Every structure is written in structure tokens, then in C-alpha cells.
Recover the amino acids of this structure.
């Protein structure tokens, strides 16, 4: 390791240990690299500003965040819960099954796992804890597991960021996430069915047919958002980036005009929270541009690619190694950091081995989502604990069946790329 790269690493690790904001730590470590390298410090501003100004797709991130926060503030979660209760509430463990289906529906609006856990997930936990058959640990475990579906089914904030760093088509990535996201729901519902049958968890009461029209109408309105987004993107009416603006406007009309659930105070609170979250991500992205410059200048991606070629890794062996790497790192590091720092290092190797970048992106993002629920430091576990008070150890104890099912699906997707690529290929998207 060269002296400039060593300086970057030491400053970055020191920032993490001191619990400094991740974005600041990354920028300062990049500046330390330039100092030791003897380069002009103005290069830091140049790399960051050029990177941000040339990243049109980056505009989608704050707009999708705004759409998700508007949906959560606009009582959409409660309406979706009742809608899904009609569809799967009569299955064993009905409330848990409803939570999984709500996550599938809400994922088509938010693109964020944390938004899913904090919105529909909180509604599901409150409903489950009203019945003694659902332990708090089980309620929290199924909520955090199902929240991982959010960034897989389009629209997806992590897939937008991956498209930014990889150059892969965001439209193709969105299509590629549909089948894996639905399969995640299927395997989680199977796990819930087995556990519910064993523990004799209750089915939900049958909802009178006279109430169906009103519930279906209220639930169908939020469902129109993913339909509008995907139809607009794949008919060419607007780009995936412009779709984020449409999503935010759609959510604002639903929450503010149709449901009348947004007061002026609540709306400003949503704007403030969305701005804060967007600023955090943008700062991390700015730091990533600096670090990627340093890694590229030092030839780190080329060195890793050469090492992989010397080891004669096959596509499958490399993907399995990537799985292990991201499952481990995902327990400790933010998804944005993993996407913006580590993925660019691995992309040249994936290209050399002939791995399809769309397949690689969905596998990597699913890895990171599993990392959010993987003990000991899965972020979704901490978010749910902060919102509900459910002990993390209880969620970890009850959550291992869901974790195993998701890991099995990840392995299957790794070995069978057609699961990911079938839909974008059938829709005419060319993948490399």
C-alpha cells in the first residue's frame, strides 16, 4: 500500500472510530490523500463538483425520499394494510402475511427499506402486538425482513445509485428487480406459513363483503403510483429520473388533496426530514467521488482485477466471494457507502469476467438489504428497536428463519442469472 493510500485509510478509519459523519470522514480522508500525494487541494472541489453536476440520475434520490415521506405522513400505510388484509388476512398468521404483502405494495412507492419499516412496518407491529399469539420478537423480525423488499422492487433508491456508479440502465435495473422482489415475498410468506401453522397463529376475521368496495377503493389509489411510474418509464413518457418527480407529485396530491391528511405543519416537517436525509446521502456521494478518484489514481481496481485473473476465478466463484464480502460489510456500513466506494472497485473485475452488470447490481443490492437485518449490527434492527422498543436480541432470535430463506434466494439468484435478467431481456433491454 502506498503512503497516500495508507493516509486515506488511516484518516477514514479514525473518522469511523470517532463516530464522525460518514460523508465528512470520506471527504477529509480524500483531502489527506491529496496532501500526502503532493497534489493541489483544489482537486478535491473539482472532483466533487464535477461528479455531482454530471450526475443527472442523482436527482431521483431526493425526490424518491420525498415521495416516501409524503406517503408515510399521509395515512397511506393504514389504507394499504386494510387492502392487503382482504387478500391474505385469512391465511395462518394473517397479520404477518399482510405485512409482507404491504411491503411489496409499498415498495412500489418508496424504494427505501427504512421508509418501509418506519411506515407500514410500524402499523403492522401495532396490530400484531394486540394479539397474544404474536410475540414482540416475531412481529419485529417479520417487519424488518419484509422491509428488505422495498429497495428491490422498483422504484429503488439503491438501484438508482448503482446505475450512477456502474453506467447500467436504470430502466433495466428496475425491471430486473421485479421478479427477485416478488420471490422475496413468496419465500417470506412460506416461512410465515410454516411458523404460524406450528404455533397456531390466528387467521384474521373475515371482512364483510359490504365493506370491500370502500377498502378496495382506498387501497387502489396508492396502488396507482407504481402503475403510473412503470408505465411512464417503459412507454418513454418520462425517464427514471423524471419518474421520481412524478412520484413526489403523485404522493403530494394523494396525501394532501385526496386524503387531506397533510397539515401545513406536517408538510413542512416532511420537507425538512426529506432535505436532511437527502443532504446526508449527497454528502456521502461527494465523499465517494473523492475516494474513487484516489483508488483509481492508485490503480486499485486494476490490481484487484489482475489478482482475480491470476487466481483464475470463474464468474460463480467471484460472485460468491462478493456475496460473502457484502454480507459481512453490510452489518457495519451504510448501503450508500458500500455502493459508492466498494462497488466501483469491483466493477472492472465483473466486466473482465463477463458478468452482466444488471445481474451484478441486483445481487449486490440484495446482499446489502440482507446486511440490514443481519446480526449483530443490522441497521433495520436498530431502527425498529428505536421505534417500538422491541429488544434486538428478541428480533434476532425470531428472525433466523427469514434470514435463512433470503440467503437461499440470494444463492439461487447468484447461480441462476436468468431469474434477474428474464424480465429486462423479454422487454427488449440489451444487457452486457
Amino acid at each position: 500500500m502506498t503512503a497516500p493510500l495508507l493516509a486515506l485509510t488511516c484518516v477514514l478509519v479514525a473518522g469511523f472510530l470517532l463516530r464522525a459523519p460518514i460523508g465528512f470522514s470520506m471527504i477529509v480522508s480524500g483531502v489527506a490523500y491529496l496532501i500526502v500525494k503532493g497534489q493541489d487541494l483544489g482537486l478535491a472541489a473539482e472532483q466533487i463538483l464535477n461528479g455531482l453536476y454530471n450526475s443527472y440520475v442523482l436527482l431521483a434520490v431526493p425526490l424518491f425520499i420525498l415521495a416516501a415521506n409524503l406517503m408515510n405522513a399521509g395515512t397511506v400505510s393504514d389504507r394499504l394494510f386494510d387492502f392487503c388484509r382482504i387478500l391474505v388476512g385469512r391465511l395462518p398468521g394473517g397479520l404477518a402475511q399482510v405485512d409482507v404483502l404491504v411491503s411489496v405494495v409499498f415498495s412500489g412507492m418508496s424504494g427505501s427499506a427504512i421508509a418501509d419499516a418506519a411506515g407500514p412496518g410500524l402499523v403492522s407491529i401495532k396490530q400484531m402486538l394486540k394479539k397474544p399469539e404474536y410475540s414482540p420478537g416475531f412481529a419485529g423480525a417479520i417487519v424488518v425482513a419484509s422491509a428488505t423488499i422495498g429497495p428491490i422492487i422498483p422504484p429503488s433508491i439503491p438501484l438508482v445509485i448503482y446505475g450512477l456508479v456502474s453506467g447500467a440502465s436504470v430502466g433495466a435495473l428496475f425491471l430486473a428487480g421485479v421478479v427477485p422482489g416478488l420471490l422475496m415475498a413468496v419465500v417470506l410468506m412460506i416461512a410465515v406459513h410454516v411458523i404460524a401453522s406450528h404455533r397456531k397463529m390466528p387467521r384474521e376475521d373475515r371482512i364483510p363483503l359490504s365493506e370491500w368496495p370502500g377498502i378496495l377503493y382506498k387501497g387502489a389509489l396508492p396502488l396507482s403510483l407504481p402503475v403510473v411510474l412503470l408505465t411512464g418509464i417503459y412507454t418513454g413518457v418520462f425517464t427514471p429520473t423524471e419518474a421520481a418527480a412524478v412520484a413526489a407529485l403523485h404522493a403530494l396530491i394523494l396525501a394532501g388533496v385526496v386524503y387531506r391528511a397533510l397539515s401545513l405543519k406536517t408538510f413542512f416537517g416532511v420537507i425538512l426530514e426529506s432535505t436532511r436525509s437527502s443532504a446526508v446521502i449527497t454528502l456521502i456521494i461527494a465523499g465517494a467521488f473523492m475516494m474513487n478518484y484516489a483508488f483509481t489514481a492508485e490503480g486499485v481496481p486494476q490490481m484487484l482485477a489482475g489478482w482475480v485473473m491470476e487466481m483464475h476465478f470463474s464468474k460463480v466463484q467471484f460472485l460468491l466471494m462478493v456475496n460473502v464480502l457484502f454480507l459481512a460489510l453490510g452489518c457495519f456500513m451504510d448501503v450508500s457507502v458500500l455502493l459508492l466506494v466498494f462497488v466501483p472497485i469491483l466493477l472492472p473485475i465483473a466486466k473482465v469476467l463477463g458478468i452482466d452488470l444488471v445481474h451484478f447490481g441486483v445481487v449486490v443490492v440484495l446482499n446489502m438489504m440482507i446486511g440490514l437485518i443481519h446480526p449483530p449490527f443490522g441497521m433495520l434492527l436498530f431502527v425498529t428497536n428505536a421505534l417500538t422498543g422491541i429488544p434486538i436480541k428478541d428480533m434476532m432470535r425470531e428472525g433466523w428463519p427469514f434470514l435463512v430463506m433470503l440467503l437461499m434466494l440470494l444463492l439461487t439468484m447468484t447461480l441462476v442469472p436468468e431469474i434477474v435478467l428474464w424480465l429486462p431481456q423479454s422487454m427488449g433491454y440489451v444487457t452486457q
In short: The chain has a mean pLDDT of 84. The chain has one domain: 40-426. Residues 264-297 form the longest helix (34 residues). DSSP finds 21 helices and no strands in the chain.
